[in-house]
Amino acid sequence: MDQVESPEAFGRRARAWIVKNLPPADMAGGLEVDDDAEMRMITQARELQKLIFDAGFAGIRYPVEFGGQGLTRAHQLAWREAAAGYQVPSAFNVTHGILAPTLLDFGTEEQKTRHLPAILSGHELWVQFLSEPSAGSDLAGLLTRAERDGDSFIVNGSKIWSTGAHFSDYAMVLCRTNPDAPKHGGLSMLYMPIRSRGVTVTPIKLVTGGSHFCQEFFDDVVMPESNLIGAENDGWRVASALLVHERNMVAGNSLNDHVPATSGDEGAAAAGKEVIELARAVGRSQDPCTRQLIGEVLVLQALADPAIARVNAQLRAGRLPPPASALVKLMSSMSQYRIKEIALEIGGTQAVLNGTGDYLGVHAQRWLAARIGTIAGGSNEMQRNVISERVLGFPREPSPDRGVPFSQVLSSRRR
Amino acid sequence: MDVDLTGEQRILQQTAREFLEHEAPLSALRERAAKGDSPFTPDYWQRAAALGFAAMLVPEELGGVGSEQPVLDLVIVAEEMGRQIAPGPLLPGAVVVDALVRAGSREQQKEFLPAIAGGCVVATWAVGEPPDGWDSAAVTTRATRDGAGWVLTGRKFAVEAADTADLFLVTARTEAGLGQFLVPRDSPGLSVAEVPQYDLGRKFGNVTLGSVRVPVGKVVGEPGRSDECVDHQFLLALTVQAAETVGLLDQIFSSTLDYLQGRYTFGRPLASYQALKHRVADHKVWLEAALGVSSALARATAEGDTRAAALASAAKAHIGDQSLVIVSDCAQLFGGIAMTWEHDLHLYLRRATANKFLYGSPAQHRERLCVLAGL
User: What is the ipTM of this complex?
Assistant: First the structure.
């Protein structure tokens, strides 16, 4: 076993196992489901993840000592290819693609040993609590406080836009631990069991009627200092790394093995097939204008993989700095948005006249929520700032709050 | 080009860049165009050929450079030529070599390949036909049997380097399918009409074939059975063109970034205005996508990957449209100076614009993607 299995051999072994053990993909699903169905999906995802873990396929790029396989991106891609057409526990995307990588970067040995195997085996779903009602793009301007009380912290405040907090187990919470330091310097990252005393989770109803996002309220939540991830008041560094992982995950380029629903590459591949089906269904597949639109989707589809591969190669070679993952996030957000626009255009009246559960209506519903992708995970505007400032080296935007103790900074709440 | 170039390829890239900077400065293009001269001299092309520009796809024993990755090396040179809007029949020459290597007789190979590789013979491909014919199906030029030989009749447009070409590879339709024919410049019945120069680095001509007789020895491959070869030539042309366009795009974008950093208004650099920063960030995204798809296409073409055809159309549609969006916005960012003859921007805009349509417009390639997807 000293020799590392080739990605091809790994892919073949994975395929043989997948065919026998994973249920076929449910093509109709994936947009809006009711709460009960969602809970069933989560339970099933946990079971599938356990199954994959027990078979030795979980955490393909995670270290072996924490329950992973210690393999490469090529192996991961082989797995994704092998799993095409089968159900994978994509409810773990955020946990495996964002939180666990951050824990791997900054966690203590004890934290990693305790949680990573549990995460990879489907026992723990993690989520990030970052944005607040008054702090989204300006994340470091957040107000949730964690006040020292001996060797504990007492957390008060509110977080918003956390995905799936109501069915998750743990959260990384970015809190202000020193209001007298300039805003970035007074933050700490804590992780907390979501079902702790004093935590209230409220799902938010979205435009499409579904509730994938939540708001949380903290009332004197007590967390031991052993729940700090990274050093006290060094939370901005942890959050920045977390955001890089988030951009990578959205781009289909993270430690998460499962195909994210809207990744750059696989999401677009599905989109090509979808708009072709759609055009046939509405009887427009021979219309030249429609074919131009379909062609545009096929182009976006073809660009995703090579663009991601190129940016990654430059990141690996050190020719682009880590914030350059924003290139992939922005491209993916713009492409996905355009694809939704095109699907609506092709679906036309027939899409608009049908509801959520209908395969035509789904495109009109997706359109209503199309802006989620260009806002969530760092709005397109924030990505453009990151690209121009930290990739191209253009001057930073002026920030009157730089170097000023946070307690003296103007905010929407304290003008 | 690829981030993962070999050591030798980096040397090739550097050599090509230095040669072109020295031998093909943009100022020379303007001067030659103003005088109505051909954009390049035979001497220039022979010196470029001495560096292997015309020989990448030629087998080593016939004057080639013995490249280990011929298509990738060709693409590296194309990208450098794009970067400097350099003149020279790189693309059509490579296509003619490709046809001869794949389908030419031993005699044809021996007669023409060393001469093309050495830059002594300028070869070009006469394929496109008015109004917008850039694929096999659009070829209407007729090839009819005439005893042992053939007779060609028809019109070809946008033939690169037609003003100086010594040899035309004409793609024509026989009763059975496509055929390809080598027609020397002095053949009776062949006439070349120059068209006003648009891209200052290149001249194009319209070629009329009025009953041009082609002896059997100048027929490339089996007449009527050349469709596959022609498709490969289109693929190669699109691969080289994509590289050339991303090269020019990368260059003009990078000059624009420098300009924005150095130019001050209202006491601050243009680069500090968010309205401009955000536009530039978008351009960077689509430029990276263009560079990525161009190198993926080069690899697919080199490896004979079945996905190459779709990648070629996707690359053409994206790069063709996006290059104009970016270059023309670079003009906006430079401001009035970019509207002058003396500024380099129009040289980039001219080439990008011409490339958008040569070998098929983005719209044609989007349609082709639908066909390739089974629609």
Answer: 0.96
